[in-house]
Fold each of these.
Amino acid sequence: MISAILLLPVVAFLIAAPLTAVLSRLGRRLGTLDSPGAAGHDKVLREVPNIGGISIVAATLLPVAGGLLLLTAAPDSIVERLPALEGYRHRVEAAIGPAWGLVACTLAIHLLGVWDDRRSLGPLMKLLVQAALAGVVAGLLDTRMLTMLDEWGVAGNLLSLALTVVWIVAVTNAINFLDNMDGLAGGIAAIAAAALLAATLLAEQWFVAAVLACLLGGLLGFLVFNVPPARIFMGDGGSLPVGFLLATLALRTTYVDAADPEFALGGAWYGVFMPLLVLAIPLYDLVAVSVIRLREGHMPWVGDQRHLSHRLLLRGMTPWRAVLAIWALAAVLAVSGIVLGSLRPWQAVLVGGQALAALGVLAMLERFTESGTARDRP
């Protein structure tokens, strides 16, 4: 089963890479270039198409939808070809409905982003749609965090729903905020997808692993044309669905099983913090930039050049080196997160301390970098 899932990134890559190349040329002909965004957004525009998100979403959802169609129409033939699924058949059948719901929600937020790339919808409208789709995931698709709160009755259930919506909206916007330099958001998302993929394979969560594998391949195919100097941007049509998928799939992953001493990811309760390590960099950037903007009297969604990547440019790094540095830091934190639940308490404390120290260094850079203006997507 693992070998079959590990073929999916190749399939998705082979969809995304040529499609991204076509979109790069088509975007120039049609004039679907980098757009200024909402009013007040401080952004340096470049004559680069911003429709690359179409290739990421297509490379992710087409294989997933194809697999779901086969599982729906001919489940017996799929099990015959993949005998390892027989023991998980009931879980696979139960996941088909929510899986179609996830595909629909991802497509909806992709269309929202594509429309916003062409005609700015404004931050409030985007936030409301994101919250509504997150509510669908939490309520109708029964994908929630901290389900143990249900023991508190209706109040606990509502709190779980609210926290889930906040998580999905936060991660969605964190990836969107990080899309401010060539290759940055795509690379960070690929690292997160790879880490979550490793966790789901170890935990034998085949459906979640399959979607993550397709997402990883789609991101890698897109990155071929997005690393500095970028020939195409993902735009909101890419960053919003990528963040949405990462947030939702992170919720659908089981990180701890105290009842099973053989569970690959461990049984320690603090294993549930793995997503925070995997997504630490985009979440840090979201929080840091929002705090800076609020402190200066601006709303968090009013864009500027105060992101972590821009701060590194002001410290003298080249754009490519800044991207590589952030990728490397994200990878270190993500790899640490995979094994978190299997560590002894003192080892987990060390991993947490390492993460806090790394983010502390970034905070100092935010604090002590001299004010100035860095170019957006240099």
Note: Residues 370-378 have pLDDT under 50 and may be disordered.
Amino acid sequence: MSAHVVDVPCASKDYQVHVGRGLVDEVGPIVGSLLGTPECCIVSDDTVDALYGDRVQSSLAGAGIEAPRITFPAGERNKRLATLETILERIASHEMDRKGVVVAVGGGVTGDMGGLAAALYLRGCRLVQVPTSLLAMVDSSVGGKTAVDLAAGKNLCGAFLQPEVVIADVETLSTLPASQLTDGCGEVIKHGVLADEVLFERLAASPINSAGHDLDELADVVARNVEIKRDVVAADEREQGVRQMLNLGHTIGHAIEAASGFVLGHGASVAVGLCCIARASAAEGWCAADVPGRIEACVAAYGLPTDTDIDHDTLMGYLAHDKKRSAAGYSVVIPRRIGEVELRRVSPEAMRSLVDAGCGTSR
């Protein structure tokens, strides 16, 4: 059974996030206790399906829930409308009704694909998130954002749909490639900088991507990250104000991620973006002088990059397509100190100055 249950109250729906060990085999009982025995479809990429598809399907069957499996090719490059159409056609072929449930089992791409399919099928059915990557557990599975990528940029086509429940089994992290576990740590560090200096110091002192890290302690860290995101999402479900604070490190980070052709992972890109905006903030006098060094040291301790050598004109080209950009400029989240951030509106010219001050300067 789960060691942690985090309540997430939202205007559209209240739900719980279960975090612990062995929860893959508890998906059926948890779903059954909440939703009865609805029609379900399991959505996974082909990599995760090979690892956990049988167990999730068997757990649901044990609760009296028949759940056919729908798979798609793994990878961010497949988070596109064509893949979404295939998933929707497969759901329709199983004649699932509006009270049915999409059970998204996998990382952030699967959570987005399954979530958006649930938001669109019959104008909205129900969703259960079963994240199997650290990045998905601490970030994308909580909060209701679902999206696919367009040629113009990442996550430009999407919808909000809060899940019925999130079930995060930290034992699944043992099957992640080390590089993916490390990548997810970028968002974990971000949450510490955003809202919890004690968590940040804990992360800096004992990197959670180290070999043989205790799973119960990892569950503790995941649950604390979920609480931080919960507090922000509950206050601003549709990202009209305070929820934008979760974009700390993302404005420059997304540009770096896209400019790399998505070779650099999302978490690693956020880590770089976090370091870059900290250096730029210090240059502007917006944050305490020790902030960049402390963030860089923590990021480096995880083996994550702290800077980028991407040309600044290239970065500005990608920033022009940032979904948070408006005619007035950019919303940029500034780390005032570890555990406290501030949202600032900056002009395109000021954004260029931040890129120049923060990127490619720490070599």
Note: The two ends are 47 Å apart (CA to CA).
Amino acid sequence: MHKYIIILAAFAFAACQPATESGPQPAAVEEETPAAVVEQDRLAALLDALPGEMQARYAHRNPKETIEFFGIEPGMTVVEGLPGRGWYTKVLLPYLGKEGHLIGANYAMDMWPNFSFATEEFLETQSTWTTDWPAGAEEWRGDDGATVAAFNFGAMPESMAGTADVVFLVRALHNAARFESIRPFLTELLADSFAVLKPGGALGVVQHHARDNMSDEFADGSRGYLKKAFVVAAAEAAGFEYVGESDVNANPKDQPSEDDIVWRLPPSLATSAENPELRAELEAVGESNRMTLKFRKPE
């Protein structure tokens, strides 16, 4: 009897000991990584891999923080207003990935002749932009980038209505506001932005920001700047709900006078080509003070 008691005690003692390397190991419990963290890591890695000339602008354009604030995620359909030479396009295409879709949106064709630089040759290039831009963007897609399409504001295809998750407008509103009295270009731009979004979709605006104490004449868009109250009112008139703002793209060093234009600052430096001292002063200011506003299309 004593023998059985000793054996049972030995088994009980062994069961209480920690497992050794040679013994059975408990199954590892893997902590689930939140999808948002994975996407942030993906975006950070993507930005780290882009060319140095693009990275040189990160301190001024804050692409990671801006994209995250607007809620842009892989697999989404995003409308990028005025993609231009593709600075943000080259970020968005790989970030959205092969399940995503990027739609470039350009100013209305009737708006371009109002610019002083709009030569006949330039206008000819704009007339074929909706086919030329997607063809050019194909070169930036790679094997895993988002698919691409394009349209002109004021002429959005009906088939695109209600398809987008986010409309992304970076420094795109001032010229539309500037020429609004000629034709309601800004009104049409925001109407198309509203129409292209799914219910609940987001409108993200990054725009040169005029201080509240500046005159309305200064802040009419002709100098590049708009007031926050003006942008919010215009978006709400189009049906959007104002969600909030971020100061990620704010630059308090940008303190324009009533005679200044935004293009005096980097990267344009339009007013200091013959004045190295002024150029250095403006370079020290950096890029413009920008409001970063988020709106929502009601469900």
Note: The longest strand covers residues 197-210.
Amino acid sequence: MAEFDTIAKHLIHTYPHDFARFALQQDDVEVIEVIDTEQPTVEAHRTDSLIRVQIDGGEALVHHEFQTTDSTPPMPQRMASYIGRAIGQHRLPIYSNVIYLRPDAGRSDPGYYLQERHGYRVLVQYQVIRLSELDGQRILDERYSGLLPFVPLMQRPAGVDAEAWLRQCVNRAQEMPMDETVKANYLVHLAILSGLTYNIETIATIISEATMYESSVVQYFTEKALKQGIEQGIEQGIEQGGRACAVEDLLDVLAIRFELAASDPLAVRLGAIDDVQRLKKLHRAAIQVPNLEAFRHLLDSDE
């Protein structure tokens, strides 16, 4: 998540007016400053920047919290804690938004924290924004420069397939009037965010076709794809090796304590278990149970 936090924070700093206007759905918003904060949330991590704005004749704060997955602890608790701290620190009204980047995230987020106990009622509300439910074409048409890198994650127009939509987003980013170095970084941000739902090779191909920034964008994704392949291979090797060792350790205990033969159906059954944590749990049980029948019963009840 840190990679996406960094991108979101950079885009907010660069295009605060776009994010404030998008959140409040008002054009008449004046950005005063972007406030960096070290304030911890319940999870004790850096929060995103606050945008201090002038709206409806007064000052207020606009806050965006970006999430790739569902939150632990639950988002309502985190947001209640954060909003309370921000109000206490800055003494301004706050408009808080949680933006879920992945299509499957945030489905159960109610958009509020509610406590009703013994006559005490606490209600803290915030806006839940799931990018996959937003009209991406509208964001492109309204020229939200700061939000364009997020558009590939939004709902595409009817009849447009995923690759065509990503290509359209890249082409629009390419048209943005900005310094070439800035544009290269801008495309990197779009590409990294697109990686949440698109295949890495597809992203690299589309961007290399539409841009001249192979060195900064395509190279990044080529290296990332290679790195991911290596990491997955190592991870699978560790997982498979760990499982084999766990099975061997478990069978050794049963053989030593209860003379379980390798050909016994129970041994074959244990050898088919893929879950390393379950094998470790059974290993501890094998050390403690009084007899093989007790172990069989435990195994049956565990399934």
Note: Strands lie at 30-35, 50-55, 58-67, 94-100, 112-117, 120-125, 127-130.
